[in-house]
Write a structure and sequence with these properties.
Radius of gyration: 19 Å
Number of strands: 0
Order of helices and strands: HHHHHHHHHHH
Largest sheet: none
Shape: globular
Helix content: 55-70%
Length: 218
């Protein structure tokens, strides 16, 4: 059971996260500022830094609220796969669909420099928003606590070794290439270097990822 101090800290964190989410919905993540957050939450800008080391940490917490839609849809995608290799591809398809529709949000969660260990940030988030863990299967839950995208996506390929002989080297190579392909498209979208709509970005990225996964069949 939390003591009064812990309850107050949790409440203050939620005030600032809710204010940040509001700004992101109304104006976009690029227009978030400490002053705007403080005005909505009803505190001074300096108070924010008593609870968050830097603004990127607050943006990470707020962005996680938008990532929830992806996490909720992921199980239905995985159910369509008969093998773990198929599930791996479907997991990427679901991730690309949501991330390319909201590139700034997913960049904040999976690419942006947070200034500290991402796994600690993720654990901190779920300690505040533990209700976000309700309803996920045993297959999905371990993925929720993995902050590193490379390690997270590789989990399904590791399971594919139960179905047929695949070397660890091949899995590492395929998975790293898949992550680099996604990062390349994401960076291009965030920096507006490509005149590509989200659906086109998904189709192109998945075509490349499917091609490299064929390496596992050799």
């Amino acid at each position: 059971m939390m003591n009064r101090k812990d309850i107050k800290i949790k409440r203050m964190l939620q005030y600032f996260v809710d204010a940040t989410v509001q700004i992101m919905k109304e104006e976009g993540i690029e227009n978030v500022s400490a002053r705007k957050i403080a005005d909505i939450a009803g505190y001074t800008s300096s108070t924010i830094y008593n609870y968050f080391g830097e603004l990127s940490h607050l943006l990470y917490f707020a962005s996680m609220r938008f990532v929830k839609d992806y996490l909720l849809e992921l199980p239905s995608y995985l159910e369509r796969g008969e093998t773990y290799t198929e599930k791996y591809l479907l997991s990427w398809e679901c991730f690309c669909k949501h991330s390319f529709a909201n590139p700034q949000i997913y960049h904040a969660v999976y690419i942006a420099d947070l200034g500290e260990k991402p796994e600690e940030m993720l654990a901190h988030y779920f300690s505040i928003y533990s209700s976000d863990l309700v309803g996920f299967s045993d297959e999905i839950r371990p993925l929720l606590f993995e902050s590193d995208l490379t390690t997270r996506s590789k989990a399904l390929l590791d399971m594919a070794k139960r179905e047929r002989e695949i070397t660890d080297e091949a899995i590492e190579e395929v998975n790293e290439m898949a992550v680099l392909i996604w990062e390349g498209m994401m960076t291009a979208l965030v920096n507006k270097r490509r005149n590509t709509d989200p659906q086109e970005a998904v189709e192109k990225t998945m075509r490349y990822i499917r091609n490299i996964v064929k390496i596992l069949e050799k």
